[in-house]
Amino acid sequence: MDRIRAAVDARTDPDFVIMARTDALAVEGLEAAIDRARAYVEAGADMLFPEAITELSMYRQFADAVPVPILANITEFGATPLFTTDELRSANVAMALYPLSAFRAMNRAAERVYNVLRQEGTQKKRYRHHADPQRAVRKHQLLPVRREAGCAEPEVDP
């Protein structure tokens, strides 16, 4: 609890959210994890991250026990099942974290690229299937950010 209190005491921005994570469920059980969550909230935590939840009903119990938002950690190969966003919403989960999904997909894509290079010796026939970096610039409206930062203007196809 001392770390939560120290973070609350040191907070200078009222919009800065202090999220407390508990891994107590796997070691001490649900009731102990909920008790710890209550103590974190009493210490000033704005949000809770209960780790290794295995059933939606557990999220509901956390949400019923504390008056702060709950985060779900949804990662492939983790203890928590791959609940849908609708399922999480129904269990009163306020935010979902997908920490490795895109990374794992990128790893698979990289593996495919290197297999093509190994087999064909070039990416000539395949590069049109790769992501277009200029599309990302347009899609995420990064041009104003680049201009403000003083970066050179990239060539962007219309």
Structure description:
This protein is mostly helical and 158 residues long. The chain folds into two domains: 2-97, TIM Barrel (Alpha-Beta Barrel); 106-148, no CATH class. It is 49% helix and 9% strand. It has helices at 2-10, 24-28, 30-43, 56-65, 85-90, 101-120, 133-139, 143-148; strands spanning 19-22, 47-50, 71-73, 95-97. The strands form two sheets. A two-stranded parallel ribbon has the order 1-2. Strand 3 (71-73), helix 5 (85-90) and strand 4 form a beta-alpha-beta unit. It is extended and about 60 Å long. The N and C termini lie far apart (54 Å).
Low-pLDDT segments, ≥5 res = none
Q: What portion of residues belong to β-strands?
A: 5-15%
Number of domain modules? 2
Number of helices: 8
Most strands sheet:
2 strands, parallel
Q: Helicity range of the residues?
A: 40-55%
- Per CATH, the class of the largest domain reads Alpha Beta
Tally of extended strands?
4
CATH topological fold name of the largest domain: TIM Barrel
The general outline is: extended
CATH architecture level-2 label of the largest domain: Alpha-Beta Barrel
In whole angstroms, the N-to-C terminal distance is 54 Å
- Using only C-alpha atoms, the radius of gyration works out to 22 Å
Structural class call reads mainly alpha
Q: What is the name of the CATH superfamily of the largest domain?
A: Phosphoenolpyruvate-binding domains
The arrangement of helices and strands along the chain is HEHHEHEHEHHH
Strand order of the biggest β-sheet: 1-2
User: What would you call the quaternary organization?
Assistant: single chain
Q: State mean pLDDT (0 to 100 scale).
A: 90
